[in-house]
Amino acid sequence: MARGLIAICLITLLACSSVEGRGLELAHLNGAEHQSVGDHVHGVVANVTVGGFNFQLNLSNPKLVEELKIKRLDFPSDFMFGAATSAAQSEGSAKEGGRGPSGWDHRMETLPEKLRNSTKFPMAVDGYKRYKEDIKLIKDAGLNSYRFSISWSRILPKGSLSGGINQEGIDHYNSLIDELIKNGITPFVTIYHFDMPLALEEKYGGLLNRSFVNDFKDYSELLFKKFGDRVKHWFTINEPNILAQYGYELGISPPGRCSLPSTLCALGSPVKCFETVGPCKFGGNSSTEPYVAAHNIILAHATVVKLYKEKYQEQQKGEVGIVLASQYFLPYTQSEEDKAAAGRLFDFYLGWFMGPLVFGDYPQSMKERVKDRLPTFSAQEKVLLNGSLGLVGINYYTSTYAKHKAPPPGEALRYSFDQWAETIAIQDEEILGVTNSHWPEGLQRLLEYVKDKYQNPKLYISENGLSDHKDNDSPLEVLLEDPYRISFVTRHLYRINKAIKNGVNVKGYFCWALFDDIEWGMGFNRVGIYFVDFSNYTRYPKLSVKWFRAFLQG
Fold it and tell me: Which domains does the chain have, with CATH numbers?
């Protein structure tokens, strides 16, 4: 992943890269009923039965066969198996149904060159109009849960209660939630998934202003009132580190604030740059604003958790948490410097938010390096924060090496430099099971790290997946074959199960994504278990849908 930035499949290539043709491959077999491992020109070949399906596997190492030995019955009966989407990436109908514009709508209109397929962004994959048939597709896959987000500006077009409530938006999500429950699917709702109402950005600067806390509280309470009788699992905010860094240090997502030269590479390297910064033409301070934005996000989350506990939890019997993203950081060498660098990266990614929400303050490593650029919490705020974490969604895609690196001399300090660390990609099979930086064992290690450091919170894997990289002109039957995704999911489930056996409190797994979708600046991307024809939005099940159904029934 580019400079180790967190994968949300948001403008991040390594996190979404396919493992087709490398490491572990699966080819669908009709009728094979045996398990065996034998020699093969590229390593070994294994014929195995997985989740009721029969496959032939090419492996670089026979030890990887063990990671495919996982069954539905290995998990608790109430374990959630689902898929995930977000409103901005799937709904479309951006100017219909009373919805107001979001920051991403503004970026698409003002910087279309920074978003691939930008003209298609307002339609996404037409999920707003197709939600009933889409829910049937969730059921057809055998999944028992669905993580989706509510479009803030579809509920409050002006972002705040004073700007008026859009009843048409309320009606839409009421119908969606009812349809899910009617089909036996448990809703997991993300309240804010990157789509800040543009009105709040224009009114007071969005996340940079403490007014955000109050407006987010009002918005969240409205959702609890309207949907909380049926929705029992809430995530307040998706990937706050991405909101802060991409939006306020690098300027590559809304509101696009930054103070860096436009020639700098934001994602990738100078040799192979996937995305340059900015352009930094909307103002900003890359040294301070990421920390201010994150500070207000933390206070907003804690405020909403307190609100729910005091006013709604007793009657509604639900729970509220947050979605965080991280890689697993492996020291590049066994030197004390590199071990410390890995620890700092965990602090700057996870600890940035889990530290305050569990212990009431930022990690010591952040205080020491960010110094007076890091906001402080008052004594009253620390009381609010302490123990306000709730359940945690973990978005995991890749792992990386961590190496000590001092900030470059002569450059202004900012989030990317404050870590005193650089990330270095783990090469394929340099560690057993690593392919294109995907390492299922890294997820197990990450979960166990969270358990040990942050009081073993209730966890859900809220995103985990990869993208197809095939020629879109290939025949449909070829585009629907995704055996590499099946191996990816299977191996990660195996590692989740091992973490559970080691005492980690994991309650569910959500594959990213339900559909091929708009991956923000990346444009259309083949991340789904359902193939979407982007010319007419027709959905087709990939092989992984058949696997999910067989696995969950088996």
Answer: 2-553 (3.20.20.80)
